[in-house]
Amino acid sequence: MDYQELCGKIEKSVPNIRFAGVINNKGRLVAGGMIGSVKPLEDTKKDEMLFMELALRVRMRGEFNEELGPVKFSLSYRDKLIIMSFPMGNDVLLVTMDKSDTFDKIPFQILKAIG
Q1: What is the pLDDT of residue 35?
Q2: What is the domain extent for residue 44?
Q3: CA 108/CA 115 separation, integer angstroms
Q4: DSSP letter assigned to residue 40
Q5: CB of 44 within 8 A of CB of 75?
Q6: Residues of the chain with confidence (pLDDT) below 70
């Protein structure tokens, strides 16, 4: 799968999107990023910490796959934005968007795009 193409596809289909990127298992951004002229809410150093924490969290959740089944996505509804993560093998698709009352179908649209 072409990760850059996937991020572009998501950018076009998700309303109020801020970020679409793929993070590898070491917490490094390997494709995508901030959308257009969107101003980040944190600095680059904190982005790196967020990516590393996300990679670790996804690996930790994998410990329960046998009992509970694999994670399809995780969603955090925060005061300033919505954060979604989608495990893809050893990598993770990270999508952030501005808060919206109609976000409930978006993770399932993204799952379809991932295939």
Answers
A1: 86
A2: 3-114
A3: 11
A4: P
A5: no
A6: 43
